[in-house]
Write a structure and sequence with these properties.
Distance between the termini: 73 Å
Number of strands: 21
Oligomer: single chain
Length: about 475
């Protein structure tokens, strides 16, 4: 067979040779497409439209709700939950290995032994510092994970890793992923609530409860520590009652007509759903946050009658009331750098512990006595821990440590006791390391979700919470 053009006579062999670089990629693309079509697709969670109606997970869940107490700044694991006798034995001696400092200008190589005593509690012999006397009463229900790891020493990046899957801004928070996947049992309250400290927002501010590129319906709703707890929820007096009802009815009619003409615009659907939720919240939110409905005994249990624990106790009690009413995910934050004890740790750490210890333990006890702990995960911890050496010799503190730190979880399918270990100085996780993405995969597993199958298509790419990291469900954490 012979091919001709207007200039040159070519043989079939010449044609194939000259077109090899053009035809090869085309053939390869066809082969890849055929193979992709033949491979089974991952099952997707979620729907084409977006709402907060409850959705059944693919697998039988052990957890249905979660309360996270996020201790922003980095609680010192070696002073609270991971005792290291060698530090006290070598106090003020030179550290024998390499230290990964964050603040080199104030760095020291002198070992700093813990000033506080530890005892073992409960049937698992969990070591607890004298700074956490109330936590010591719930060790039979809590699992201390001593081998947490993000490996990124700055606060912002490690917060994003622990709360968003990667040390990058702009990604959806954990609560957004859970509510995107599962919705909520309540249709009169937000599925995802963030509760802030009266003394200020944590590092990264509103990004801590951002929906990222998920629809705005899955953003955390802020409940403030003071009245009004939710801004702009109630109408002004001159619009209350029948006037507002007529206005909202007209708005619903217009929104419905507008949405019908724009099928597939999911952000529009999410915005309309947010308006409708806000209307229902006018009644439900006030009731859920009204602590006068709780007994005097309950107030005392949470420390609401004591100045040091009043504020955090109120938030913990509201968190329980929200979970009772069908909210899926509640996260409580301490103020900016509250646990970031670069200096004056001997004074600062006890004060931080007094604020949260009694309310946090009360939350676990209260959920348990109401039969809610079995299906509610409670988390306590920050984005990092602290180093075993002195920082700032003039006013002793500890620098950041994200290579081996502690947190605790309770309920929702987690076992009790201790998991993982750091080295003899408390610097690096050396046994059963739990990376942030392993923690997330395990959490989703307890909610009946496979982390790789919870996807959202963004700009043509399937996004997940774990984002391609080698995440694994850690069976040793589970009951």
């Amino acid at each position: 067979m012979t091919f001709y053009d207007s200039q040159t006579r070519s043989t079939r062999r010449h044609f194939l040779a000259s077109s090899m670089m053009r035809g090869g990629p085309l053939a390869l693309a066809c082969m890849i497409a055929q193979r992709a079509a033949a491979e089974p697709k991952k099952p997707k969670m979620g729907t084409l439209g977006y709402d907060l109606k409850p959705k059944a997970p693919p697998h039988t869940p052990r957890a249905t709700a979660m309360i996270s107490m996020f201790m922003q700044g980095g609680p010192s694991q070696i002073d609270l939950l991971d005792p290291k006798p060698l530090l006290n034995k070598m106090h003020l001696q030179k550290f024998p290995g390499k230290i990964k400092y964050d603040n080199a200008a104030q760095a020291s190589s002198k070992i700093f032994g813990s000033p506080w005593k530890f005892k073992k509690y409960g049937e698992h012999g969990t070591d607890v510092s004298e700074l956490l006397p109330h936590f010591s009463t719930i060790t039979d229900d809590a699992l201390v994970i001593r081998s947490m790891h993000t490996g990124v020493n700055n606060h912002g990046q490690s917060i994003h890793a622990m709360n968003g899957g990667r040390p990058l801004k702009g990604r959806p928070a954990l609560g957004s992923w859970l509510t995107y996947a599962l919705g909520a049992e309540s249709q009169s309250l937000p599925a995802y609530i963030a509760m802030t400290d009266p003394q200020g927002l944590p590092v990264e501010g509103v990004l801590n409860w951002s929906n990222g590129w998920l629809p705005s319906l899955f953003q955390g709703t802020v409940i403030r520590p003071v009245e009004p707890r939710i801004l702009n929820l109630q109408p002004p007096p001159h619009l209350d009652g029948e006037i507002q009802e007529n206005y909202l009815a007209m708005l619903a009619s217009l929104n419905k007509r507008h949405a019908q003409r724009r099928a597939g615009e999911h952000e529009l659907q999410a915005r309309i759903a947010n308006y409708e939720l806000a209307e229902r919240m006018q009644f439900a939110a006030d009731e859920a946050t009204d602590l006068s409905r709780e007994s005097k005994t309950m107030h005392e249990m949470y420390g609401i009658n004591e100045p040091e624990t009043k504020e955090f106790g109120e938030r913990c009690l509201i968190a329980r009331r929200l979970i009772e009413r069908g909210v899926r995910f509640v996260q409580l934050f301490t103020k900016n750098q509250y646990w970031d004890h670069h200096g004056a740790i001997a004074k600062g750490l006890p004060a931080s512990c007094r604020k949260i210890d009694k309310p946090a333990a009360a939350l676990v006890k209260d959920l348990k006595q109401r039969g809610l702990l079995d299906t509610t995960i409670v988390h306590w911890g920050g984005e990092m821990g602290r180093l075993p050496v002195i920082q700032n010799e003039a006013n002793i503190g500890r620098d950041h440590n994200t290579d081996g730190f502690s947190m605790w979880v309770a309920g929702g399918g987690f076992r009790a006791g201790i998991y993982g270990a750091t080295d003899e100085f408390g610097h690096h996780a050396v046994s059963n390391t739990v990376n942030h993405f392993d923690y997330h995969a395990t959490l989703l597993h307890l909610f009946g979700i496979d982390a790789e199958h919870l996807t959202y298509e963004q700009n043509g790419r399937e996004q997940t919470l774990i984002d391609g990291q080698p995440a694994k469900v850690i069976e040793g954490l589970l009951a």
